[in-house]
Structure prediction request, 200 residues.
Amino acid sequence: MDFALPPEITVSKQRVDQQWVYSFRHEDLGGLGRIIVQGLPNGQCNLAVEVAGDPSDPMTETRLAILQPISEYITAAMESAFGAGDQAQVKTAPATPQGPTEVVESKLMPCDRCGDTAAMLIFAYDAVTNGDFEDYARKMYPKYSVLDVPTWIIGEPLGAPGFETPSKILKVWPLRESIQEMTPNVFNAELDVVLARHCR
Prediction:
């Protein structure tokens, strides 16, 4: 059975708690999730598919659509090696937390009139690729989806810091947009419009 991952997907393998964990990453979508292969006492195997992201995040379905065919291939390969049966049991679940909770710097922008939060800025200082920005969007989804205010993810300046030096910026809420390169002056003008329209 021939199978090769698409060139935009990479995988890393790690032994964790007596089981093999295969973590998959997409160059544009960031972390997709992981497939956990656990040996059972009866010699069979259990295969668990954990999709990265909040179940209510529409992007989680996108990640699952990419990860599912990979898991189906692995299931078929295991059945071919060990015989058909229940050796490979696939389940889908949100990825479990790994390690200490990551702290992501963000800033809530209040409305000058009512004082309520009118916008949210998320700072992705180490984000370089589209996938890196998607990782931040995935991690912070539970926060900005509840706040329900315009939200942007802002990367480092692409050069010497200054008001005319652009940064990569991804708007993720209320509607997702493509990553853009914007200078602080241009972005601040856009943000000012959002703040001015709040509670009007």
Summary: Confidence is low (pLDDT under 50) at residues 86-91. Residues 13 and 22 are 5 Å apart (CA to CA). The longest strand covers residues 30-39.
